[in-house]
Design brief:
Blueprint lengths: L1 E9 L3 E5 L2 E12 L6 E7 L2 H5 L6 E13 L2 E14 L32
Length: about 120
């Protein structure tokens, strides 16, 4: 599954020791860019935390899996991210926001020097 939006909150890093060794988990809250914005809490586990290096204010495309598990008669659902693509604004050489040059329909500029070609 996929959603896109802006990271509005980075929650505290969680770490612990399990039967398979140490683990770490980082949770983030993303606000979607839909007509009706939604807030979704998702998590990254282990090395993915450092790999994606996410921060508040970043616009991202998020690919994730949903996983539910039962514990003591209650069900818990987690949104586990497996791919994050950071959206970056297009910038020109000076670092300013870049806009494509206007298309003039293939016509030469008005002040262009005419050539002597017959075609």
């Amino acid at each position: 599954m996929e959603i896109n939006g802006k990271i509005i909150r980075v929650l505290a890093l969680q770490q612990g020791q399990g039967k398979n060794g140490p683990w770490k988990k980082q949770e983030y809250v993303i606000e979607t860019t839909d007509k009706i914005p939604r807030k979704v809490c998702f998590s990254l586990w282990g090395d993915k935390i450092d790999q994606f290096n996410l921060a508040e204010g970043m616009d991202i495309d998020l690919s994730f899996d949903l996983e539910s598990r039962e514990y003591n008669g209650r069900w818990y659902t987690e949104v586990k991210a497996w791919k994050v693509v950071k959206k970056q604004p297009v910038t020109g050489p000076s670092g300013d926001n870049y806009s494509a040059p206007e298309f003039n329909g293939g016509m030469p500029p008005e002040d262009a020097v005419p050539d002597d070609l017959p075609f």
